[in-house]
Structure prediction request, 111 residues.
Amino acid sequence: MGTDGWAERLRLSRRLSARTPSTEAHHLAFCDRTGAAIVTVMQRGFDMTMQPDPYGLRPRLAVDLLAAAFRRALERWVADPSETGHEGLADALRDACAAVPESLVLPARTH
Prediction:
């Protein structure tokens, strides 16, 4: 597998999760715990006094948006067999992150 061996393992892992609900549930629970830990670190490392957020909503949403962008990027990368290395995943993640601001202001269809 060489230097990109991790990429193939990640791709196989994601394909397994897509077919196995219990594995996907474990993955989602792990992501949720990891997100909570990241928020704790953020709250210690960032000056939260400028915009107080007693419930941690803003940092948690920031982490959740990044996690959602990563999941969509990973989904796209796994589905494309021509993308075999980490560069393709990084490109997909950049595209997903760039799409976040516009996804927050989707206009409603008028009838």
Q: What stands out?
A: The first helix runs from residue 5 to 19.
